[in-house]
Amino acid sequence: MATVSTSFSAMGIGTGGIDTASMLAQLQSAEQLRLTPYQSMQTSYKNKISSWGTISSLMTTLQSSVKKLSGEAFNTLTVSKNTSFTATATDKASADAHSVTVEQLATAHKLRTQGFDSADTQLGTQTSKEATRTITIQQGDGKPMTIELKDDQTSLNQIAKAINKQDGSVSASVQRNGDGQYQLMLSSKKTGTDGEMVVSVDGDSDLAAVLNTSHGGKVDGNADSQTDAMSQVTAAKDAKVNVDGTEYTRASNNINDIINGVTLSLNSVTKDKEPEQLTLTVDTSAIKTTLQDFVKQYNALLSETTASSKYVAAVTSGLGTTDVATKSSQSGPLMGDAMLRSMVSEIRSTVNGWYGDSSSNESTYGALADLGITIDSQTGQMTLSETKLDDAIAADPDSIGKMFKGSGETEGLATALGSVLTKYAGDTESKTDGIIKTATDNLNSQLKNINTQIDKTQQLIDSQVNRYRVQFQNLDSIMSKLNGMSSSITALMSSMSS
């Protein structure tokens, strides 16, 4: 933005005492007053945008508490501690008890070769040509892993490196046994029988004699397995677990498809096969914690809307009959905003509603006051009685849940309030924009227009002040010439009279 220089000290020298520099500074100040209404509007728009941003943020925070009251707060469960397994529950789980027996853990297949004096000796058939051989590792019905090796790539170390380079579902390592010899160890990354490895070598009979395994590896007492080149370190086994009298077989020790909303992590076989009791009980502390947060966030929102809409009368003392009082700077930026009034009215009306179970003649709880949450009729602020809330939770948490979540054809408080909050603040989960965003977008557009108008007006002011400057400079020049002529005439007249 161009501005006129305010240095006028060199002006007025030839005007016979007329302070043109001071006059120009005053004219510039007067011209700058043309910006005042635009700057006031600019400040107003900025304050409104900021205020709506704060309100929207507080509504989003409140929205999180309301969503918890729609389900999570009443579905949070305390899970028993068990020995042979660990259980975790989501909000999809239900309070219940289950008999669980871990009969067998899922294990990953592991094989090892016979021992060799060196891990760098070539074990394959050596030829005079660049011959290749292929190692194939098959696991269940999955895609086979194929490793191609040349004559000088068949040592234990090189085979392990080539297998690991595939980054498949089998890992390889070279280890030393108790006799100090080197062995290739193959480990399945998958537990269960689907991870059992079948190893075959094509194009190299010597290497095949070291690796070929199709019966799970040599095991003492298993005649079929004696034809395998490698020995079994760990058998591939599925997990077996009995839940409430039904036996289940799974490939993994982490099982989430037996009890709805519950994941069982198997740790060990159940001692003496005596079932352990898994108990899922409602964590009532989550209800209280969520309601405390709800009250806190609701009050924070109401405090901000009150501050934003606050009215403070303008000071009129000292004003003349033609003067107009301006808005007090202590008033809220959204004072008189119709949308804010409507929003606050909807929110307060919603939380003051009754949400009892219409299908029951013995509905215990239907309003916040029943839970010890009272609402000030003037400020809208909530006050929580923890003693009354504790009594209500202890007496009937299910009824409280229905009050917030809804039951039958009756809408719950959380559902109703959630709709109001989404209407105004939107919802990031559903990618919904609210009315507030539309309002702030409009304010930003108007602010942009005001900024453009300020720039244009400032350019006009700068041009006008420059014109004043030129006029005063011309006056200076003319007055200097006239003063010079006056001096010359005076001198001439003096010489003529002497």
From TrEMBL:
Keyword Coiled coil among UniProt keywords: yes
InterPro entries per record: FliD, FliD_C, FliD_N
Limits of the Flagellar hook-associated protein 2 N-terminal domain: 17-109
Residue intervals of the Flagellar hook-associated protein 2 C-terminal domain: 236-483
Coiled coil: 440-467
Subunit structure, interactors included: Homopentamer.
GO biological process, alphabetically ordered: bacterial-type flagellum-dependent cell motility; cell adhesion
UniProt subcellular location: Secreted; Bacterial flagellum
Entry's transmembrane regions: none
GO cellular component, one term: bacterial-type flagellum filament cap
This protein's UniProt keywords: Bacterial flagellum, Cell projection, Cilium, Coiled coil, Flagellum, Secreted
Name by which UniProt lists this protein: Flagellar hook-associated protein 2
Organism of origin: Candidatus Pantoea deserta
Domain of life: Bacteria
Main location: secreted
Primary role: Required for morphogenesis and for the elongation of the flagellar filament by facilitating polymerization of the flagellin monomers at the tip of growing filament. Forms a capping structure, which prevents flagellin subunits (transported through the central channel of the flagellum) from leaking out without polymerization at the distal end.
Keyword Secreted: yes
UniProt similarity note: Belongs to the FliD family.
